[in-house]
Structures are given as structure tokens and as C-alpha cells.
Amino acid sequence: MNHYLNIANHPMVFILCALLLIVVITQTLTFMYTAYKRGQELAIETHVMQQTMKNAALFSIVPTLPIILMMFALAVPLGQNFAWLRLSIVGSAVYEGMAANIAAQNQGLADISDPGLTPKIYVVMMFVMTIGIIWGILFNIIFMKQLDKLSAKIKNGSGAVLITIISTALFSGMLATLSAPYVANIENKVAIFTYIISGVSVLICHKLAQVFHTPSLKDFSLPIALVIGMLSAIIITTIT
């Protein structure tokens, strides 16, 4: 029933995805060149700019590790080309899987691994994943300037603590929304055990970072927890 993968992994789909990625890479190189030229105009020393670029590149690698893992995971049900495209542009490790599952369930499937997935449903999933992510970008384009002014006004006033509380509450709510369907489903014991093991892995990484004075270990705690969680899910599924 995986004949939809004949479309998903077709060379033409690869070419279309590659063209979009070339545009993104061109934009990135253009921004880098423009920023570098502007730095020269401001008389910033060359070695300072080069070191800044190296540091930025290094610290950009860490957040992408979970995305790479998710790309390989999504390549199985969605095909290598579209997973590569989605997680190379605007997508996130959490959003893509969630959006794909929502689209699949809306079409009557259990999830994206359902053997009943057809080319028609696959196209619906592609549209949902692509269109669903653009609203945050449009919102930022239209309202970010006003939000920055409001945020600066609150921070300079007595509401600095309120900003921290609101940000933490929003982030906690997002995590709860994403994890609740799996953790609250007592019949899905694999998901519950995986959730617990992954969470404990993060805590252990943070503790080791404190003991051995290696703050960088905290940065890698998420990808480490993802790998451990995946391995634990495989082991639990195998032995149960």
C-alpha cells in the first residue's frame, strides 16, 4: 500500500525540492555577504567578523541535530525528498510530525504510518504541512515591530518579570499540548516509557554538565534525549 512513495521519491520531486533549497541557500549567502560588507563599512576588524561567523556556525549546528534526526524519521513515511525540503527551510522537528499526523487523521487514518495512506492523502499532508507553517511568518512580518515596541516598553517598566512568566507559561503549554495525547493515553505504554526515559535523559545531561563543568553538554541534551528515546522505544517494542 506504499505506492504513494513512487511519487514521493520520484526524481522530479527531488528536482523541485532542490530548486527551492537553492533559492534558500542563495538568500543565506546574500545575507552573509551583505552583513560582511556592512561590517567592513563600520570598520569592524576582519578577524572579529570571521570569528563571529565561526561561532555562529558552530552554535547553529547544535539546534539542528534534532531536526536531522526527525528528517530521517519522517523520510520513512513521507519519502526522502519532502522530508528533506520541509526540515531544511522553515519546519521544526516537532511541527512537521504533528502537522503530518493531523492531516492523516483528518483523512481517516490512524497516523502517517497507516498502510492505507494513498497518493491523494499524501498530497493533502504536503499542503497541510506547508500552509500551516506560514502564518507565524506572516504574523511576524505584520506585527513584529509593534510587538518589539510593546516588549521593550514592558521590560523597561515594572513588567519585566511578567514577560518571563508569560514566556515560560506559553512554552510549557506548548509542550503539554504536544505531549499530552501520548502521555495521557495509558494504552500506549511505549510512548509513556519513552517520554519518561527521554525526560530523565535530559535531567542526567544537565546534572553531568554541572558536575564536569561542561555547559555545552546542556546544548546537546535534546538530541541526546531524542536518540535515547528512540532507542528505548525500539527496545521496549521488541521485548513486549
In terms of topology, how is this protein built?
Layout: H1 5-8, H2 11-41, H3 46-78, H4 80-86, H5 93-106, H6 119-131, H7 134-156, H8 160-183, H9 189-211, H10 216-219, H11 221-239
Helix pairs in contact: 2-4, 3-4, 3-5, 3-11, 5-6, 7-8, 9-11
What attributes does this structure have?
single chain; 240 residues; mainly alpha; 2 domains; 11 helices; 0% strand; transmembrane helix; membrane; transmembrane; DUF5058 domain-containing protein
Folded structure, characterized:
By secondary structure, this protein is mainly alpha-helical. It folds into two domains: 1-132, no CATH class; 185-240, no CATH class. The chain is built from eleven helices and no strands. The chain has helices spanning 5-8, 11-41, 46-78, 80-86, 93-106, 119-131, 134-156, 160-183, 189-211, 216-219, 221-239. Helix 5 crosses helix 6 (119-131). The longest helix has 33 residues, at 46-78.
Low confidence ranges? none
Shape: globular
Please, how many helices?
11
Order of helices and strands: HHHHHHHHHHH
Percent helix, as a range, is over 70%
- Give the percentage of residues in beta strands: under 5%
Mean pLDDT: 86
Distance between the termini: 26 Å
Rg, alpha carbons: 21 Å
Number of separate domains: 2
Most strands sheet = none
* E-strand count: 0
* SSE class: mainly alpha
Concise structural overview:
This is DUF5058 domain-containing protein. The chain has 240 residues and is mainly α.
